[in-house]
Amino acid sequence: MWKLYQNVGDIYKVSKFLGHRNVEQTKDDIDGFVDASWDEALIVSTS
Q1: Theoretical Cys-Cys bridge with 2: which of 17, 21, 33, 42, CB 3.0 to 4.6 Å?
Q2: Closest Cα partner for 3 from 28, 27, 32, 33?
Q3: DSSP codes, 1-47
Q4: Which of 20, 19, 46 is nearest to 38 (CA)?
Q5: pLDDT at 13
Q6: SS3 for 32?
Q7: What is the DSSP letter of 10?
C-alpha cells in the first residue's frame, strides 16, 4: 500500500482504489506501514 501511495501520490485515489469507506481509513493504514517491505508481505499474503 505504501508503494501504491508513493507511486500515485494522491491519498484520495488510493483510498477509492482500495475500496475504503473514507480516506481516514487509508491514512491509518498507510501510517501503520513502517517500511516498504510490509507492502511485499501484504502482496504475498493476498495472492
Answers
A1: 33
A2: 33
A3: -HHHHHHH--HHHHHHHHT-SSHHHHHHHHHT--STHHHHHHHHHH-
A4: 46
A5: 93
A6: coil
A7: -
| Residue 7 confidence (pLDDT) | 86
Query: Which residues fall within 8 angstroms of residue 33, CB to CB, at 6 or more apart?
Result: 1, 2, 39
pLDDT of residue 29: 84
Which residues form the domain of 39? 2-46
State how many domains the chain has.
1
Q: Can you list the residues of the chain whose pLDDT is less than 70?
A: 33-47
pLDDT of residue 24: 94
Extract the C-alpha cell encoding 15. 483510498
Query: Cβ distance 5 to 36 under 8 Å?
Result: no
